[in-house]
Amino acid sequence: MSKLRLVVAALVAATAALLAPTAPASAAAAPRVLYYDTSRAAEFVAAVHQGAANWNSSVTSVRLEPVTAGRRADITVSAGNGWPYASVRSLGRGSIVMGRQAVTIGHHPPRIAAHEFGHILGLPDLRTGLCTDLMSGSSAPASCRNAFPTSTEAARVQANFATSRQIPAAVYAESAPR
Ligand SMILES: [Zn+2]
Q1: Domains defined for the chain, CATH in brackets
Q2: Signal peptide position in this chain (predicted)?
Q3: Which of 2, 51, 65, 154 has a Cα-to-Cα distance from 44 of 20 to 30 A?
Q4: In the 8-state DSSP scheme, what is residue 132?
């Protein structure tokens, strides 16, 4: 190979390196941001923020943020006297009721909030009775304090938003174990 060809080859390689994106090709897209409104969550505001924070530390394809003035909320959270429930309109949109009846018998409000957010994020109930499962909900003992999704639950939510999965509208009502 001539000296000139070697120089040209080196220049081509250097240029290719310069043009290569600095971020890895697999870098995640920006998360979908969902705004939630706690203005009617009464005594549960802190618990709702905690539930949102737990999801935010578990997934990157979606982020739950408190709604700001002038912006329309994707998720409204209110307090009620019955059992908690989530009414899901579509993936990432719906309403949550923090039910005092569950709290009265000992269920942990941050776990309730994280569980109901789980429904809005596209997860169904899975009544395994296990405290380690977030979506086991009230089938786990009322003494359960775990308010984080398992890696499997987090992976499902991560995929739901990475692929903008379509989910049917549904109401998920919690209740005492049957
Ligand atoms: Zn549920």
Answers
A1: 32-173 (3.40.390.10)
A2: 1-27
A3: 154
A4: T
